[in-house]
Amino acid sequence: MPFDEKYFSTHTYANITFAKYSMYWWSNRFYAILARRYGRRGARLLEVGSGMGHLVDQLSAAFEAYGMDLNHWAVKQSKALSDQVLFQTASAQELPYKNGAFNVVIIKHIAEHLPDPAKAIREIGRVTEKNGILILAVPNLDSLLKPWKGDKWIGYQDPTHISLKEPREWLQIIQSAGYELERVSSDGFWDAPYIRFVPKQVQKLFFGSLGGLQAISGVVFLPMTWGESIIVIARKK
Predict the structure, then answer these.
(1) Hey, which residues does 65 pair with through a beta bridge?
(2) Nearest-angstrom CA–CA distance, 204 and 127
(3) Which one of 80, 108, 151, 213 is most buried, counting C-beta atoms within 10 A?
(4) Strands (DSSP E) along 30-141, which ranges?
(5) Which of 27, 26, 6, 28 is nearest to 15 (CA)?
(6) Can you give the residue ranges of every domain in the chain?
(7) What is the distance between the alpha carbons of residues 24 and 32, in angstroms, rounded to a whole number?
(8) pLDDT in tens, 50-102
(9) Residue 58 backbone phi and psi in degrees, to 5
(10) What share of the chain is helix, strand, coil (3-state, %, to 5)?
(11) Which CA distances in Å does 222 have to 55, 80, 188, 194?
(12) How far apart are CA 114 and CA 91, in angstroms?
């Protein structure tokens, strides 16, 4: 499946209204909090795979913000959304930026779509300044509840997830790109239902409560296996 207008209009993160307090809105707010907490205000920030620009636009008041995506259509939508962010079309595996150009780089649920994610993360390491921050999120093959979902697990539902890896592999790739790990966490169990015959809304409340608290508070506290994604915060050596 190509990353085109159809993809962006039919997948979970874009096939919802961008209304305040949607799951998409809370996710972007959470990652924006992390960027502001760990990054240096006023410095350059890059979102790799910026989609339609909603996350990086939130950060344009605190950083000199850049967004890039392989999808020409998404970049066009992003430019219409915000004139405070410098958007361009480019590949994550060949970043068109100078060495050490950014204090913060965010790559949120992009690496699993890439044919060579290790190359992309090396490129991100190249453009991150010393002591700069990487914020990465990918599907979590070590999720405690993944066996309960089986073939219906969320990470298997997108056919463009061509580079699913175990967390230890992602951490090795990140460290090989010149980063030291600061925090490795997760995003909670939000992909209800997990149990047959129990109402989905009840399961969302029960299983999703800790992830929801983390998203609302902006405090990263969930163990790595307690969610459908891993969240990595790493600092460039």
Answers:
(1) 45
(2) 39
(3) 108
(4) 44-48, 64-69, 86-89, 102-108, 128-139
(5) 6
(6) 5-236
(7) 12
(8) 998 999 999 999 999 999 999 998 899 899 989 999 999 999 999 999 999 99
(9) -60, -25
(10) 40, 25, 40
(11) 22, 36, 7, 19
(12) 10
Helix (H) or strand (E) holding 182: strand 179-186
User: How much is the CA Rg of the chain, to the nearest whole Å?
Assistant: 17
pLDDT tens digits for range 31-43? 999 999 999 999 9
Taking Cα atoms as reference points, which of 135, 133, 110, 131 lies closest to residue 120?
110
**What tokens does 91 get?**
């590949």
- The whole-model pTM stands at 0.92
C-alpha to C-alpha distance for 62 and 42, rounded to whole angstroms:
6
Token digits for 141? 């093959």
Three-state secondary structure call for residue 130 = strand
According to CATH, the superfamily of the domain at 5-236 is Vaccinia Virus protein VP39 (3.40.50.150)
